[in-house]
Amino acid sequence: MAETTDTTHEHRSVFDAPKRKRNPAVTAAIVGSIIVHAVLGYYLYKNKFEPKYREYTDDVTDVAIIKPAPPPPPPPPPPPPNTPPPPPPKLQPRPPVNVPADLPTIPPLPVPPVEKRIETPEPPKAAPPAPPRPSVITNPDWARRPSGEDIARYYPDRAMRMNTEGRATISCTVTAKGTLESCEVQAEEPADMGFGEAALRMSKLFRMRPKTQDGAPVEGGSVRIPIRFNLPKG
Question: What global pTM score does this model have?
């Protein structure tokens, strides 16, 4: 049995344009242009859109400041030229002076006699008297204070009956003997209980050191005496 082989033939119409053959050089130029454009586009993309990184270092550079050198000192001035000393001044001769041989004699002036005077020295002046010294004054002070028995003896009867305590203040003049006189009640508390009168009667028992002037007792010292009246305990 014989093998059958199918052969397909391209059918072309008489009206079709004749088939043109592509030139290999044109194909190579097109491919090269495409490659060049692709490389150029990649390069532009890398430079425009890809971020660029720079590396920085923390190195510190020490800068030494060098001071300019001081200017050299000026040269010393040149020594002065050797000049000869000036000539000494010329002395002009003076004409001779004619001195007369016979000069008149002038008599000496009379000297007045010296009067001898004996001055009597004045007696020394007396020194002024010394100013008086200021007086030393001492104020009155206690010589004998009232005792508790004195206060109990002169306690006001009314205050004693009412079981009341109080106080009184009197002012007195101290005599040169140390006794009190001209006493007056300055204050009493509570009032109308007789504490002031009791203090006046009790003042006859007081003894004071009088006021002194330069160590001597004098009249006129004044004192102010507060007295407290307390009920006996027990």
Answer: 0.42
